[in-house]
Amino acid sequence: MSVLVVGISHKSAPVSLLEQVALDEQGVHKLIDDVAASEHVTEATVIATCNRLEIYAEVDRFHGSVEEVSRLLIDRAGEETAAMLPHLYVHYDDGAVSHLFQVVAGLDSMALGEGQILGQTRDALSAGQETGTVGPALNVLFQQALRVGKRARAETDIDRAAPSLVTAALDRSHAALGDLTGHRVLVLGAGAMAGLATATVARRGAASITVANRTSSNAHRLAAEYGARPAALADLEAELAVADVVVACTGATGAVVSRDMVEQAVAGGRRIAILDLALPHDVDPAVADLPGVTLINLAELAEELRDSEAGREVEQVRRIVAQEVAAFLTARRQASVTPTVVALRSMATSVVDAEMERLQSRVPDLDEATRAEVLHAVRRVADKLLHQPTVRVKELANEDGAVSYADALARLFALDQDAVEAVVRPEGLS
Length: 430
Prior knowledge:
Blueprint: E1 2-9, H1 15-20, H2 25-36, E2 41-49, E3 52-59, H3 65-77, H4 81-84, E4 89-92, H5 94-105, H6 116-131, H7 136-155, H8 161-177, E5 184-188, H9 192-203, E6 208-213, H10 216-225, E7 229-232, H11 236-240, E8 245-248, H12 259-265, E9 272-276, E10 293-297, H13 298-307, H14 309-362, H15 368-396, H16 405-412, H17 417-422
Helix pairs in contact: 5-7, 5-14, 6-7, 7-14, 8-9, 8-13, 8-14, 13-14, 14-15, 14-16
């Protein structure tokens, strides 16, 4: 059995597509039930946020299960398969573990290091538990992921990375326009990064703030929080014409701000600073060639961030995640051979008991003290014979490769497969 992740997020799809697959609580439970009903799925749950929808499933095979699970997301979007597939991503087995740990640590968030994903992951675990679709495999995985997320935030300041990115971008714009006081700021987007940007420019004393977003309700929500003015993304050209600073972080997959738009906005000698904090770009890189335009993009900021204190925090979190992934996979591989080892020792105990009964029938006058000594000696012989193989098979389980040493051990000792499976079979299942 292995873990499969099929998902779609701000890194793989435009906001418009993410909105099509957005789920409320009832929708999350329905999707979990649908996944769990798939032929090759034994456990399932879903992480659903405003910029992420990921299905986690314990499956008995890759091919077949990935098609079934992907189809559920495609149907949810109401898109043609060919149009939807490029926006989906798949992680399997070790890769699925690594992906979840990165997500919970905040390394995969739109606002790097944001802590909200911890609660959203906990909600995913609870939803699966409530529907009865989370079993031993996903429960252990998600519980460990939550511990990784907590460790990342306890041992580092990863939650300061995204604010540092916004601050660095504004600091660089200062060279072009000076202090924000008296300047008009236009924020494109209404997600986590846009929220950080709006909060930061509000603290820095911007003369006015406008929040433009494709979804009107989200623009109104963010604008109301900071006393800003909401606007429609459809009015972008008019908004650019009066903005001094633009912070772009919509999460769209194509350029939202074109060269022609900016060229018209700076006609007549106006100056404008554009901070493109989106990945992929929200702004056509060609605007950097226009007179009066200062373009600051994420790649430049990431280079600065890498050498900054915030960048070092990110690298520390990456190291923590790598350590935790390695430890989890080692423990999982060792646990995978435990049923075989238990079955092997159970078989040895049965052989010892059978031989002791045979001895009793052949030597009925054997006194209890002697019988106990013989039993002790035979058990010690069995334990010593089994000790090295069982220790070695756990060590070998940590090595990469196609060989299953647990299966080899089971074949060598002709272990009953039912006896092996009974060790890990949940109570009540058959």
